[in-house]
Amino acid sequence: MFTVVYKTRPILGELKMDFLGIVSEITSEKQAVVTGSMVPDIGNSVFDSKKNKIGTVKRIFGPVDEPYVSITLDKGVSFEGLKGKEVYISGSAQNGKDKRRNRRN
């Protein structure tokens, strides 16, 4: 007899992940400061290398070439081993306003 095994793909496995940067500091307000390689949108979800959501982008500051990104960590996320880790954002998705640009009436 043959056994048929169906493999399901996890939903997060289909997300396109863009490299955001490396966590350089953890503040006392439970926020992570990342030295960014790109400028994300405020409110984007931030993931670790295992595609686990760790927080959201709160603020962007510093120089334009290498901006600093402040991330508010989600409840239950341990910030102890986060320093020096690589973090990612989900692929750029257009919001509703950007989709409507340059549309002819």
**Order of SSEs:** EEEEEEH
**CATH topology call of one domain:** Thrombin, subunit H
Gyration radius from CA atoms, angstroms: 17 Å
Strands in their spatial order, largest beta sheet: 1-2-5-4-3-6
Strand content: 35-45%
What characterizes the major β-sheet?
6 strands, antiparallel, barrel
Low-pLDDT segments, ≥5 res: 1-12
According to CATH, the homologous superfamily of one domain is Probable tRNA pseudouridine synthase domain
Helix amount: under 10%
CATH architecture of one domain: Beta Barrel
Which structural class should the secondary elements be placed in? mainly beta
Mean pLDDT: 79
Q: Give the oligomeric state of the chains in this entry, treating copies of one chain as homo and distinct chains as hetero.
A: single chain
Q: Please count the beta strands (DSSP E, at least 2 residues each).
A: 6
Number of helices: 1
Q: N- to C-terminal separation?
A: 62 Å
Shape: globular
The top-level CATH class of one domain is Mainly Beta
Task: Give a structural overview.
The protein has 105 residues and is mainly beta. It has a domain at 15-77: Probable tRNA pseudouridine synthase domain (Thrombin, subunit H, Beta Barrel), CATH 2.40.10. The chain contains one helix and six strands. It has one helix at residues 96-99; strands at residues 17-26, 31-36, 45-47, 53-61, 68-73, 86-90. The relative contact order is 0.25.
Could you outline the blueprint of secondary structure elements for this entry?
Blueprint: E1 17-26, E2 31-36, E3 45-47, E4 53-61, E5 68-73, E6 86-90, H1 96-99
Antiparallel strand pairs: 1-2, 1-6, 2-5, 3-4, 3-6, 4-5
